[in-house]
Amino acid sequence: MVRRGNYQGPFSLSASRQTDGVGQRGNPWVDSGQAVALSLAWQVQGEESKPDDRWPSWISLWVQQALVDYAPEIKQVLRLKWPNDLVISDQKLGGVLVSQFAHEGQTFRVAGIGINLAWINPQPQTFSATDLQSVLGRPVDRSQVVKRILKEIAHGLQTAKDKDLLDTAVLDLRAPPKSLGDATGK
């Protein structure tokens, strides 16, 4: 949209089905059949326009907080696998990719977010992934998950000036996870 001249301030695009998603290192994103496929774009200026490898971790941190807000019972088991995967018990729940590009003298940052809500499509045998519905044992409201992610990222972008604080929070996420049984008291 930005490259076509349709940019109107920060924006997000969400799809109920993704057919040509991209994962880390250009790998294809495996569609679970019911997922959050969300892209956010915003303009950056001055010091903020310098490339910064910490953005995927920061956005992942905000997405993690949004998921915990939606489902508090996963707080103790949802972890960031450096630098940008969200995992539960070593199984991938989702991921975040952040890119930056210039267009007509302006610099833009784009975050792509994918979260597995439910596995409807067959899961590749070599792929270790999970989905939020299986973890929670209940249906997941996609629109509420997207709403919470957008709210948390908007808040994070407003407070992103304190990069030391963000780095400390990311390090806390890298602590060893507990089992879901420990988190729910079972």
How does this structure look, described?
The structure is a single chain. The chain has 186 residues and is of the alpha+beta class. It contains five helices and six strands, in the order E-E-H-E-E-E-E-H-H-H-H. It has a single domain, classed as Bira Bifunctional Protein, Domain 2 (BirA Bifunctional Protein, domain 2, 2-Layer Sandwich). The protein has a six-stranded antiparallel beta sheet with strand order 1-2-6-5-4-3. Helix 1 packs across helix 3. The longest helix has 17 residues. It is globular, with a radius of gyration of 16 Å. The N and C termini lie far apart (48 Å). The C terminus is likely disordered.
How would you briefly describe this protein structure?
This protein is of the alpha+beta class. It contains five helices and six strands, in the order ββαββββαααα. The protein is globular and about 45 Å long.
How are the secondary structure elements laid out?
Layout: E1 11-15, E2 33-44, H1 55-70, E3 78-81, E4 85-88, E5 91-103, E6 106-119, H2 132-136, H3 142-158, H4 163-173, H5 180-184
Antiparallel strand pairs: 1-2, 2-6, 3-4, 4-5, 5-6
Features:
186 residues, disordered C terminus, 29% helix, single chain, BirA Bifunctional Protein, domain 2, six-stranded antiparallel β-sheet, alpha+beta
Strand order of the largest sheet: 1-2-6-5-4-3
CATH class designation: Alpha Beta
What fraction of residues sit in β-strands? 25-35%
Kindly state the percentage of residues in helix. Answer: 25-40%
Q: How does the major sheet shape up?
A: 6 strands, antiparallel
Total beta strand runs = 6
Number of helices, counting only DSSP H or I runs of 4 residues or more: 5
Distance between the termini: 48 Å
Structural class: alpha+beta
**Residue runs with pLDDT of under 50 for 5 or more positions:** 173-186
